[in-house]
From TrEMBL:
Associates with the 50S ribosomal subunit. Transmembrane segments: none annotated. GTP 1 binds at residues 10-17, 57-61, 120-123. This is GTPase Der.
Length: 437
């Protein structure tokens, strides 16, 4: 299920990142004020009143080549209008209403997106006069908040959640593999989409009234149904947000959320860069199956060692995703393209694999017999049993006498043994230890 997106929009210095950091903090009420707020973190997730959502600080989206502040703010608002389900429009009580606020307000107003006005820096709730002025923006009752004191944020989230659209259930059947293609601009995402669709007849979705079918592309191959997630985003080329790195991260996050299998495209010609790692990390954290696709392999000068060296480099750079298979291909010449879908099918199967409890426990017992659990502070870890509690990704709970003394390295040892027995190719495996009650 994809999480709805809340975007924070507003002039610089109104307190967007301060509020953003408070919202993504684990426990809203006790989050410390963070001086020198980092500009890196622009995307996070939160939960309020039982609704999970993702939240974006559009102020952190750098618009390349744009120095003029007002233009940046306008473009950030444009991104929010395009991507968000609800927009928090933040203004500054101390500064009062400015011309820039007015201009952004008009853009938001025309978009017909749900908007909540947050009046920040209301450090003293006795001085509500500063807030009433913002009624004039035309978005209903403004919510008074203080990023410094952490006040009003609950009310703000209440208002935002109330305006979220009803949760839409995924429109695709269980047997459809949802595939997202992610990677930096120009890596070849649109080319790969076209190559995959090839001559195949694109099956037109008959589900009316959804926007999903407008942005996703379903197709079928060898009896297996797939849907390529958010392919429309790849077609909207040349638009301003395509040129901003951080924006593509935002778009990728949404696509990853909705996917079963994530194809992480790497430019074989240029090699691996940091941005590739950030995006791949999201797929891992989101618990999706992943495949590395090294594209543009046609233009790489090769000898018999090239693929091996690239593989080693990739593994070094993505230690945390050792499980993801690598496919080398060319979207342009379609060289080795036929190798891709079988790998997608395989990791999708592994992602959904369910291991019977007794089989799992045989493996755990063997692992424990070969390499007994460590002692910690004179206490030995005792493993009672393990059971798989979820799939997509496979999630295993290990019941022990004392979870505190389960060491990270022993957990990794168990994961390796579990993988040695069941593969789980292409998928993260989540292990949790619980006290046996
Ligand atoms: P952004 O540019 O909109 O992301 O704004 P920041 O979150 O970076 O905040 C800009 C400045 O306003 C920082 O110096 C914050 O400490 C300050 N600030 C944020 N919230 C409040 C608040 O509620 N009251 C006061 N007085 N200052 C705040
Ligand atoms: P996107 O921004 O990730 O969607 O990338 P595109 O699919 O638009 O491709 C960017 C550029 O790379 C285009 O000029 C493509 O023709 C080129 N390209 C894509 N795939 C390949 C490939 O496998 N080999 C070569 N040589 N060029 C490619």
């Amino acid at each position: 299920m994809a999480r709805p997106v809340i975007a924070i929009v507003g002039r610089p210095n109104v307190g967007k990142s301060t509020i953003f950091n408070r919202v993504i903090g684990d426990r809203l009420a006790i989050v410390e004020d963070k001086p020198g707020v980092t500009r890196d973190r622009i995307y996070g997730t939160g939960e309020w009143s039982g609704r999970a959502f993702s939240i974006v600080d559009t102020g952190g989206i750098e618009i390349d080549g744009e120095d003029e502040i007002m233009k940046s703010v306008r473009m950030q608002a444009e991104l929010a209008i395009e991507e968000a389900d609800v927009i928090i429009f933040m203004v500054d009580a101390k500064a009062g209403m400015t011309h820039a606020d007015d201009e952004v307000a008009q853009m938001l107003f025309r978009s017909h997106k749900p908007v909540v006005v947050a009046v920040n820096k209301v450090d003293n709730f006795n001085r509500m006069d500063d807030v009433y002025e913002f009624y004039g923006l035309g978005f209903g009752t403004p919510v008074a908040i203080s990023g410094s004191h952490g006040t009003g944020i609950g009310d703000l989230l209440d208002a935002a959640i109330e305006k979220l659209p009803e949760q839409v259930d995924e429109v695709y059947d269980e047997d459809v593999i949802r595939v997202a293609l992610i990677g930096r601009p120009n890596v070849g995402k649109s080319s790969l989409v076209n190559a995959l669709l090839g001559e195949e007849r694109v099956i037109v979705s008959d589900i009316a009234g959804t926007t999903r079918d407008a942005i996703d592309t379903p197709f079928e191959r060898d009896g297996q149904k797939y849907v390529l997630i958010d392919t429309a985003g790849m077609r909207k080329r040349g638009k301003v947000y395509e040129t901003t790195e951080k924006y593509s991260v935002m778009r990728s996050m949404k696509a990853i959320e909705r996917a079963d299998v994530v194809l992480i495209l790497i430019n074989g010609e240029e090699g691996i860069i940091d941005q590739d790692k950030h995006i791949a990390g999201y797929a891992h954290e989101a618990g999706k199956a992943s495949v590395f696709v090294v594209n543009k392999w046609d233009v790489v000068e090769k000898d018999e060692k090239t693929m091996q060296l690239f593989t080693e480099d990739l593994r070094d750079n993505f230690l945390f995703m050792h499980y993801a298979p690598i496919v080398y291909l060319s979207a342009k010449t379609k060289q080795r393209l036929h190798k891709l879908l079988p790998v997608v099918n395989h990791v999708s199967e592994q992602h959904a694999l369910r291991i019977q409890t007794h089989v799992l426990n045989d493996v755990i017992s063997d692992a424990v017999a070969i390499n007994p659990p460590p002692t910690d502070k004179g206490k030995r870890l005792r493993i009672n049993y393990a059971t798989q509690v979820a799939t997509k990704p496979p999630t295993i709970v290990i019941f022990v006498n004392d979870p505190e003394i389960m060491h990270f390295s022993y957990e990794r040892y168990l994961e390796n043994k579990i993988r040695a027995a069941f593969n789980f190719d292409g998928t993260p495996v989540r292990l949790f230890t619980r006290r046996k009650s």
